[in-house]
Amino acid sequence: LAGPPGSGKTHLAQIWQTQAHAVAIDPGRIGEHIASLGARPALIDDIDKGPIDEQGLFHLINTVRCAGSTLLLTARRFPSAWRVALPDLISRLKAAATVEIHEPDD
After folding, report:
1. Phi and psi at residue 5, in whole multiples of 5°?
2. What is the DSSP letter of 73?
3. How many domains are there within the chain?
4. Is 0.85 topped by the overall pTM?
5. Alpha carbons 44 and 32: distance in angstroms, whole number
6. Which of these, 39, 35, 104, lies nearest to 70 by C-alpha position?
7. What are φ and ψ of residue 100, in 5° steps?
8. CA dihedral for 16, 23, 35, 79, sign (positive or negative)
9. d(CA 21, CA 67)
10. Residue 70 belongs to what domain range?
11. Please, is 36 exposed, middle or buried when counting C-beta atoms within 10 Å of its C-beta (0-12, 13-18, 19+)?
12. Which CATH number covers residue 59?
């Protein structure tokens, strides 16, 4: 879910997290959460706010996929604009569904 600050990404993500019983993962500490995730859905809010843990995100995507679960990422920019170097992660991000949200108009 990509959009500018103030567009409601975090608000929507928190609603989804509650409904899905998802685990919130700190974008700077992705690798620390993988082992304890199990089959629960996961949420990373503002993943592109700082440096991306490419190895951690790659392993998280694979873990979620193998568990048949769901991963929601929110960001200011689409994954194609992130500075990602890991080829396997790039291919996973290209395959992900992306949705753009705009600033409220009222």
Report:
1. -55, 140
2. E
3. 1
4. yes
5. 13
6. 39
7. -105, 135
8. positive
9. 15
10. 9-95
11. exposed
12. 3.40.50.300
Residue 4 falls inside a structural domain: no
Q: Judge whether 46 and 74 are in contact, CB under 8 Å.
A: yes
**Would you say residue 105 lies in a domain?**
no
CA distances from 80 to 15, 59, 83 (A): 26, 19, 8
In a domain, residue 28? The reply is: yes
Per-residue pLDDT of the chain (106 residues; tens, 9 = 90+): 999 999 999 999 999 999 999 999 999 889 888 988 889 999 999 999 999 999 999 999 999 999 999 999 999 999 999 999 999 999 999 999 999 999 887 6
Check if the beta carbon of residue 45 is closer than 8 Å to that of residue 74: yes
Residue 102: inside a domain: no
